[in-house]
Write a structure and sequence with these properties.
Layout: E1 4-7, E2 14-15, E3 18-19, H1 23-33, E4 37-41, H2 48-57, E5 67-69, H3 70-81, E6 86-90, H4 93-101, E7 105-106, E8 113-116, H5 124-135, E9 139-142, E10 148-149, E11 156-157, H6 159-170, E12 175-176, H7 182-192, E13 199-203, H8 206-216, E14 220-223, E15 242-244, H9 247-264
Parallel strand pairs: 1-4, 1-13, 4-5, 6-7, 6-8, 8-9, 9-12, 13-14, 14-15
Antiparallel strand pairs: 2-3, 10-11
Helix pairs in contact: 1-9, 3-4, 3-7, 5-6, 7-8
The structure holds magnesium ion.
Length: 265
């Protein structure tokens, strides 16, 4: 088994507002064993503190340090491109906090970047403003490429779709951070303090979770509790290391490794 895990949230830990059976037990087991893990999400809407509160309602105690979101990934990328950069941001609290913590200034006059993230703050005025900034030389960055997101009430447009509107209006192409961009996986692995061959990804989406892991060369476990059906997996050029019915299957695997370690101690 891996020495540490990168774990997608939606479709792996919960679906909408319902926890997936075995998910809490798996995380608690990692905590008991001292196995490092990071929740790796393309959703830039919430900050780690918000996510800690959300998980707390489900009976799962985790630390803000257990999260690496597409907002962190975007902030890490921008400061590496340009240490003292400024941005015009279309997004919510999670993105604002991550960019602010990274020292990126908010500028609505002549920003280096226009950053688009997840959220509900999109309206014509803000799109018009962003379009003019892009026409004036700002560079277009999206926190993630997802064109839609699942919710309890049905699908809603994702960051990729919002960025596509600006791409169409300006003729500029957005650079997308988040999964499957290998930058996200490399930065997260470094945060875990592990090598590539010690890290594994657990996710439910072939195009983001499994593709990014394959590009970085780390093992990837696909769980069938989210967006992917078993019969569609073979269509993809990149394949998961293992296919699991749910994250609960991994619990059994970790348990057997532990039992083996106890028996041979
Ligand atoms: Mg997912």
């Amino acid at each position: 088994m891996a020495k540490g895990y990168l774990i997608d949230m939606d479709g792996v830990i919960y679906r909408g507002s319902t926890m997936i059976p075995g998910a809490i037990e798996f995380i608690k087991q990692l905590q008991r064993l001292g196995t490092p893990f990071l929740f790796l999400t393309n959703n830039s809407e919430r900050s780690p503190k918000d996510l800690v509160a959300k998980f707390g309602h489900y009976g799962l105690k985790v630390s803000p340090k257990n999260f690496y979101t597409a907002a962190h990934c975007t902030a890490d990328f921008l400061v590496r491109q340009q240490p003292t950069s400024s941005a015009f941001v279309i997004g919510e609290g999670g993105l604002i906090v991550a960019l602010q913590e990274a020292g990126i200034a908010f500028d609505s006059i002549k920003p280096d970047f226009v950053v688009v993230g997840e959220g509900r703050l999109f309206n014509f005025e803000i799109v018009e403003k962003a379009m003019r900034l892009l026409a004036n030389g700002s560079r277009l960055v999206a926190t993630n490429p997802d064109t839609w997101c699942p919710t309890d009430a049905g699908p809603r447009p994702g960051t990729g779709a919002l960025a596509a509107l600006l791409e169409s209006a300006t003729g500029k192409r957005a650079y997308c951070l988040g999964k499957p961009n290998p930058f996200m996986f490399v930065m997260a692995r470094k945060r875990l303090g592990l090598r590539t061959n010690e890290t594994a990804m657990i996710g439910d989406t072939m195009e983001t979770d499994i593709r990014g892991a394959a590009e970085l060369g780390i093992p990837a476990y696909l769980v069938l509790t989210g967006s992917t059906k078993r019969e569609t997996v073979a269509e993809f050029p990149y394949q998961p290391t293992g296919i699991l019915n749910s994250i609960a299957d991994l619990l059994d695997m970790e348990e057997s490794v532990l039992a083996h370690a106890d028996a041979t101690a």
